[in-house]
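--- STAGE predict ---
source: upstream dedup step, 1 unique chain passed
mode: sequence only
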Amino acid sequence: MRRAAALGLLAAALAACDPLTGQFRLSGEVDVAPELRAAAPRDNAVLFVVAENAGGVPVAVRRIVNPEFPAPFEMGPEDLLMPAVRRRASLRVHAELNARGDVGRPRPGDLTGQAPGILRIGAAGVRIVLDRRR
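--- STAGE serialize ---
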C-alpha cells in the first residue's frame, strides 16, 4: 500500500515537471525586409534563429551558414541548449544575421528580427523578418 502511494506521488511529481526532450520542434522561415536587402552580408554570413523561454534565456539555437532568403529553418532536439524544456513552455523566437559567426548582443551592421507573439513548442510556419539594422 505504501509503495503504491509512493509511486503515485512520484508520478504526480514527474507530471508536474512536464519535461520534453526528443519532441522539441519549431519550423518556419526567415526573410529580410526589402529596405534592408542591400545591407545584408553576402559573404561569410551566418543566420542564427534563437528560441528563448519566458525569462529570456535561450533554450535552442539553429545556425545557418550563408543563407539564401527566404531561409527555411527547422529546430529539433539537436538544437536544444538544455536537456529538457517544458511542453507548455512559452517561447519567443528571434533571428540575427551577421558576418562574424557569433550570436549574442547585436553589433553595428547586424540585422535582427523577431517572430510576432508568444509561440509554443511544435509551432510551424513561424515567420521572422529581419527588419532592424544595428
